[in-house]
Protein 1
Amino acid sequence: MWALPISFKFRNEQYRKPFLDLLSFEASQYHAQCERCLYGLLCFRSSILLQYDLLVVGAGCAGCIAAYTASKIGLSVLILDRKAEATIGDKVCGDALGSHHLSLLNLSLPSDCFYSSSPGIDVFSPDRKSVFSIEDESLRAVSLKRHAFGQFLLKRAISAGAELVDSFHVSCPIFEGSRVAGVRGFGKDGVRSYSAKVVAECSGTASVVRHQVPDADISRRVPRENTMACYREIRRTNGRITEHLQIYLDQEKTPGGYAWIFPLGDEMVNVGLGVKASEGISPRDAFFKYLAPMEILAGSTFVNGGGGIVPTTKPMDSMVYDGLMVAGDSASTVSPMHGGGIGSSMLSGKILAEVCAEALSKGSVERKGLWEYNRRYMLAYGAKQASLDAFRRFLQASSNDEINFGMAHEIVKPKDILLASKVGDLNLSITEKATRAFRGIGKIDFLIRLRNVARLMKEIKKLYMEYPEFEGFSSWVAKVRAIESSAKL
């Protein structure tokens, strides 16, 4: 047993009994529940008499939108983030956000949060002989000042009533029975614990909470072959700047990914690339080998740069557990089509908060009570995302020659790419002439695979649009796995 030092003083005597109750447990027993902390007994829940409705781990896009939405509804909200408050939002990414996401979230950005907007996108074939130029209001993208944007989202959440504890590193979840009831970690005030009725895991790919939950559905790690290793730089050019976002496909230089040049305005560009993480290629090395020598970057000056890992796959089968909801990169909400995740992260955060409030009003925060979050996200974005994941796997299995030929003959037309990005459906324009041409160069298998993926995308989307109630989850997952295993991409 542990003994309380005689010299120990309580600032408030109401904390004495719960603290002494805590000390009555065997140290080894308590420490086993918090093995990542230096001293398990020091993880005393200092907030034991203050339980928040919603505890948000991570002040990224998903976390800030979840905190804002929940606070506006009237919930008590605490945000924890490992960064200092002033640096929250300073993150390496493509910095582009589709304007339709802003409309969907009814979010108006102040002018100091973005550089400019781009009216469309250009997709280049590996041999650079074909370019798909796609313009549509739904594809208009805002080039964000990422740090300023993150600060805007954070201050908006705090103004709505959310509290923030910054520079706090979450170590592990707290459990009450099977329910996630809070988190432990360390920060400026030492080791601390915070409790809540619901915990929102929005910590990005680290997913420090969900990875420690004893349930395969929620703790499963994203396979490396379903992630992208990225590196990008912000550079100031010598007047050379594009109007459209530019994407360059090349399975030899950027296997399983692509390179990009996004205009920011003020003669600056966001330029970078992503490669399939399982390829073992350094994206930074690939950047200086293939992108740095490009004409648009000749004489450019470095502003900042960095890299990271992005999950480019379908959403998690289930994003809830008892007392736990997962959003943003933690839940793999990034688009498999282009790797953008800001808009879908914010959408997931908003839906999470709305369902959380409804569950709390019913007094039901176990998995079944939070299940509606899964269904709403799948209908709003997840079904399209799962469909596009099939196209991502098809594209990663295709060679440069196949992509070059397919784009040159517009087997998939620019308008079809637009439709796929909007709703997750792929329409093919395969003529008899094109079929003969593919057969003539011995690539008829590419055409067959393309037809297969178009059919697969429709099947997967339909299945996700029919996302089940809690009781039907196991059989639904079995159907998803059966379709995926039978796919020939």
Note: Residues 148 and 187 are 24 Å apart (CA to CA).
Protein 2
Amino acid sequence: MRLGFFDGDPSKQLYGKLGPKDVCTPQNQELAREAARQGIVLLKNSAGSLPLSPTTIKTLAVIGPNANVTKTMIGNYEGTPCKYTTPLQGLTASVATTYAPGCANTACSTAQRAATGFDIHLPGQQQLLVTQVANASKGPVILVIMSGGGMDIQFAKDSDKITSILWVGYPGEAGGAAIADVIFGYYNPSGRLPMTWYPQSYADKVPMTNMNMRADPSTGYPGRTYRFYTGDTIYTFGDGISYSLFKHHLAQAPKQVSIPLEEGHACLSSTVQVH
């Protein structure tokens, strides 16, 4: 959306001729799925875990309060989706599943406020639920987190029982299909965290109302963001792995590039682009 899109005769504007037939097209629905896939971040993947093979799995247990809901997928700032695909529906499209919300008699998603900040552990009884499921499982355990920000999941990061961790953010209407695409290896995850994930001790120390970026040693304020905070983290800005191994190196280029011109050439100035 840009300034001027609604000026004058709407039918003469760039998108002025769009109508109901242009809503929820197959191309747009595939775009929603692709956007969700690209946003998924693989934070942990032990050997022998992801991707799962849909041809060898007999039954997949899908457990948790967000496994078959749509509200969490779209967050709190959204349009009207064409249709929803929950994680359970996405996974069931490839393998047989057994589903349980996990907290039959307890509110799984009740957040708690700490004395000086906010509790950034998994809400309610979810950490206990994850731990008990992991201890009972005889196969790989994949933790899928839907959230709008970082969580203190040090327990899962350190656990040998929890073999993989995926952060999917708020993946939107096609989030369930995208999650299944990654879990079964139809799509190789390449997302990276857009924020640092802090430990609970950070949330206890830093008031939510203090948005100063730089650290202040005189008051013990640790600073914010990857640019200024140097303390312990759960995961850092830019973290994320893939099913493939990559080697990165910094490309080098000469500081000065000479372009020989014929004598008497009329060109007095030239812009050279290096990408």
Note: The chain has eight helices and five strands.
